Amino acid sequence: MHGSMQRLCAAPPPGPLHPHAMYRNRRRLLPPLLCCCLLLLLALSTQAAGQPVLHIYNWADYISPDVIRQFEQQHSCRVVVDTFESNESMYAKFKAGATGYDLVIPTAYMIQIMHAQGMLSALDHRLIPNLPHIDPEVLARVPDPAMHHSVPYTFAFAAIAVRADKLQSRRLPPAQATWAMFDRSALAGRMTLLDDMRETIGAALKSLGYSLNTRDDAQLAAARDVLIRWKKNLALFDNEGYKSGIDSAEFLLVHGYSGDLFQVQMENPAVQIMIPQEGVTIGCDALVIPKGAHQPQLAHAFINFVLDPATAAQNMEWMGYYCPNKPALEKVSPAFLQNPAITIAPEVRARCEVIQDLGPDLAKYTRIWDQVKAAR
Asked: Best exposed site among 70, 161, 230, 281 by fewest CB in 10 Å?
């Protein structure tokens, strides 16, 4: 097409043309050009039609790019990943009528809500022969142990990370594995908490020795006061920037997700990960297929693919999250399992909790969170 256009441009008429003649010439030239464009678009659409597209809605950095490429090659498809920053923002998008996603990876408590509202499809276990690899002990702790509509993907912990080297160079007291670190005024302006209602209110509740699923008004009010006190020392509430911030030492203490912090630590050993001794949230994220998915068969295939032990081990070591896949754990390096972002000491694990759906009582948390955000 480019050669034809060059010839047309290189051979102008010998004299000026009447405007009407020029118009007639353009009319003669346009149909062939349009035909070429239409043929090109038809070829592209035909190619796309022969290659199904799987649309995944997920957290950032939560599936290895190599795993996605391998799936695309094995299934002759294309995978498109959109990301969300919180369960609440993801849920709000679906409530507003979002469609087109074939696979979503929310946290267990949000899956309970979505299932109760009829947003999720039942899974066809015949299409997921790798399901038996899921650890039965993990299934005993999740809301959908029969995997009727969800398959556990990861167990993640909300942890803290510090730049112990910078604390030492400033001759500050060494870091301790406790939520009380956020009371250290010497670190004011250099620390962050997650911009996540359940995680951050949960941290304050655990610091007081309360359940992070409490419905008690007095306990929630006490947690609010703790957060308002901590807020005076914060640079900001944040869900993404804390990773680069702790890496560059812009922040010296951050509250973050264990896998994110593990990825930063892999690049920068100066980042020290700690699990607060009072206990933390355990988030079980799971794979679900929303109602109205355009590619349910391909979504089932993807679930089965990431449950393959070799694939799960590869994915686990890349993203830094614990996958409850028993044979996969035998394929990862010992160093991976020794990292505190992956394996919690039994005495601390006993004080950790999975976030639960609170039903109507969730409004209590929303009210407390609004008060914290509004406080100066």
From this structure: 70
